[in-house]
Design a protein that fits this description.
A: mainly alpha, MetI-like fold, 2 domains, 11 helices, B: six-stranded mixed β-sheet, 9 helices
């Protein structure tokens, strides 16, 4: 009996394995992708990267331009996150069931949150590009809209988690709504709120690079120019700068998190 | 003597079939110590929260200090709440803020929104806060965060917060349900002292019949939303206890 069952489950596994292999082979055939060929070109590609993507003295001369663009990107991301966070804080307060003022406002805040969050930031950038043109405002707005949505969602969760006990305690003393919010709710969820904002800054700096390519600003634009000029040494320097910046910001925000939590 | 609180034929229901409170009437006089006992789900918490309208009731009237609680607008309600202190089972403090700040939160009802947000407390209020902390024996913890204190200490902070409101009535929702016997006694002794020395009426929800008998001037027995007993605590016989809890004496744990 047990033997039979074991055999059957074995049969299932084989069936799925074969199905996956057939599916992969089928997709490769349709898209005319040759797995073997791909594998063979891999060493060549790596070799090409090693021989082209390195920083030379010549490319180091471009460092001031790169750094200026990098800082522009970083500051745009931080500004977008901060503005988004301020709006999201209010939307979060209206959207949380613990601190909502009325139902329509709660539904509105949740609607805004899911609308701006469920459309990818890159799509926002492309949409806004049509109305605002290629400048840094477009990039800022795209990041701002994305951050507002994401942070609203995160803040609603944080406020809900902060608990209704302190709210009830303050309500019973005759406190006003904003006294309760500023002295009961915010002190309680501030560590999570700051943590989410730091996370958003990190994410936005990564996204900003990509958005810069689209909107023609910041480090993304510089990357795009040298990429099209086939100047691979500068490209590698830019990539290196981005990696270092992201790591530095990661370390900083982790440190801040450790202190506040 | 004029009653401080008059509860008159109060009813509370979420839908027609399940009435949480049915035809509740009782009076509380200044300085009285009243315990409300009854099984879980009898409506004790709801009744207490109807008094300061943390929960809205459907029928009847509640008069506190000659004000009709049921008909107050938001602003008037806040004003009345400043005169009614409340103490909770889970203390309901703001855990990440200091003890002193939590005590001063009791003054919010007397302040404008901005004064409250920016901590504009007068010297007198701060002195009063320290006086109360000293009185309850926790002044050395004044600058600690509330979540670093034990349950009994947090409950004392809760009492300080209620007292700084200068209330004429204090409602206590199972104040000792999550405390050990030692802290429970300390808290109950303080509550008793508040009613006898400061002349503040105290209404306590309790699970322990013995505690209720020992401390209260009067006991109200609640069962399925009805008042089944309302008399001096000495009049609470075993028959009455069985009636309140609708079970036999041998099925109850008496401390």
């Amino acid at each position: 009996m047990i033997d039979n069952k074991l055999k059957r489950s074995n049969w299932h596994i084989w069936f799925f394995l074969i199905a996956i292999v057939l599916f992969t082979y089928g997709s490769a055939a349709i898209t005319q992708f040759n797995v073997v060929e791909g594998m063979i070109t891999l060493p060549d590609a790596l070799l090409w990267m090693l021989s082209n993507l390195f920083v030379t003295g010549e490319s180091l001369a471009k460092l001031p331009i790169i750094l200026a663009a990098l800082f522009e990107t970083i500051f745009t991301s931080i500004a977008a996150t901060v503005f988004g966070a301020i709006i999201a804080l209010f939307l979060g307060l209206f959207g949380s069931s613990k601190t909502m003022i009325n139902k329509p406002l709660m539904l509105f805040s949740r609607f805004v949150a899911s609308l701006s969050r469920n459309i990818p930031v890159v799509v926002w950038a492309l949409v806004l590009l049509l109305s605002f043109g290629q400048n840094s405002v477009t990039g800022f707005l795209a990041l701002f809209v994305g951050s507002t949505g994401f942070l609203t969602r995160a803040f609603i969760e944080s406020i809900d988690e902060a608990g209704d006990k302190s709210i009830e305690g303050l309500q019973a003393t005759g406190a006003t709504y904003f006294q309760i919010v500023f002295k009961g709710v915010l002190p309680q969820c501030l560590p999570q709120v700051i943590s989410w904002i730091l996370f958003m800054v990190e994410t936005n700096i990564r996204n900003a690079t990509l958005i810069g390519i689209l909107t023609g600003t910041g480090i993304g634009y510089v990357f795009d120019i040298y990429y099209k000029m086939l100047n691979y040494n500068v490209i590698s320097l830019i990539t290196l700068c981005i990696v270092v910046a992201v790591i530095v910001i990661d370390v900083c925000s982790n440190h801040v998190r450790k202190v506040i939590l | 003597m004029i009653p401080l609180l008059q509860v008159n034929k109060v009813e509370k229901f979420y839908n027609e079939e399940t009435k949480v409170l049915k035809d509740i009437s009782f009076e509380v006089y200044p300085g009285e110590f009243i315990s409300i006992i009854g099984p879980s789900g009898a409506g004790k918490s709801t009744l207490l929260r109807c008094i300061n309208r943390m929960v809205n009731f459907n029928q009847g009237t509640i008069l506190f200090d000659e004000q009709n609680i049921g008909q107050l607008n938001k602003k008037e309600l806040r004003k009345v709440r400043t005169k009614i202190g409340m103490i909770f089972q889970h203390y309901n403090l703001v855990p990440r803020l200091s003890v002193l700040e939590n005590v001063l939160h009791g003054r919010f009802g007397y302040k404008t929104t901005l004064q409250g947000i920016f901590n504009r407390y007068t010297q007198k209020e701060k002195e009063r806060a320290f006086f109360l902390l000293e009185k309850l024996g926790i002044e050395e913890h004044a600058y600690k965060r509330c979540d670093q204190l034990s349950g009994g200490q947090q409950q004392r902070v809760g009492i300080c917060r209620a007292l700084i409101q200068e209330p004429s009535l204090i409602l206590c929702d199972e104040p000792i349900a999550s405390l050990d016997p030692n802290s429970s006694k300390i808290i109950m002794d303080y509550l008793k002292m508040i009613s006898s020395e400061l002349g503040i009426a105290v209404v306590v929800n309790l699970h322990q019949v013995e505690v209720a008998q020992h401390y209260s001037d009067r006991i109200i027995g609640l069962n399925k939303g009805n008042i089944v007993f309302n008399n001096r605590s000495a009049a609470l016989t075993n028959v009455e206890i069985q009636n309140i809890y609708s079970s036999n004496m041998q099925d109850l744990i008496m401390i």
